[in-house]
Amino acid sequence: MPDQEQQPAAPKPRRRQARGERRAAQLLDAAATVFTQVGYSGASTNAIAREAGVSPGTLYQFFPNKEAIAVELGGRLLEQWRAENGQALSNENLALPLAEMVDAMVDPLLAFNHHNPAFHVLMHGPDTPGQVTDAFHLFHGAVLTRIEEIIASYLPSSPKSEVSRVANMTLALFKAGLDLIAAHPDERVEYQRELKKVLFRYLDPLLCVSAPESPDSPPQQSP
């Protein structure tokens, strides 16, 4: 009988690839836990492997070192932030009263940081690898630009220097609030409430002098 082609082998690489992706995701989840617990410099590949329940050798099949893990995790967290918070800074929220607008914009961001504490650790850690900090700096710049656009829609006649100053102060207040929230996990809800009060009281006398310039304009893609 003539030989027949052996075609059933085709799906196997896909199964192996899917298993590999699940394993890599497992290792990144473990790294997020370890980075949150001890910081980037205090973490080790052995600790990450132990948290993931695998051997160090298995970890090295996917990542050559701790820095590569941080780079991959940082990229994943940034993509997740964009997917989950893409509408937080959209024009749709500009038609709301200021207190409601602060809630609509800040609550999703606070929730993301609460559920992904490694994002804060990597974004603000002094020992985070340069490739990760470079990506976060670009992200920070995009967020700041969007805040400037929002401020400018309320203050269309103000000079760019004032708009930039208000936007920088707003973002700095938010980041300072995140640091306090991270430092007081047992009082997270109370500190989140205080942060929103601070943002409202800072922005209220500045932005409530006029309505946004174009509240009904089509929503823009936020960073």
Fold and architecture overview:
The protein has 223 residues and is mostly helical. 73% of the residues lie in helices and 0% in strands. It contains 9 helices and no strands. Helix 4 packs across helix 6, helix 4 runs parallel beside helix 7 and helix 5 runs antiparallel to helix 9. The longest helix is centred in the first third of the chain and has 32 residues. The radius of gyration is 22 Å and the shape is elongated. The N terminus and C terminus are likely disordered.
SSE series: HHHHHHHHH
Distance between the termini: 63 Å
What overall geometry do the principal axes of the alpha carbons give? elongated
Largest sheet: none
Q: Strand share of the residues?
A: under 5%
How much is the radius of gyration in Å?
Answer: 22 Å
Structural class by helix and strand composition: mainly alpha
Helical residue percent band: over 70%
Q: Count the strands?
A: 0
Total helices: the number is 9
The average pLDDT is: 85
Note poorly predicted spans: 1-16, 214-223
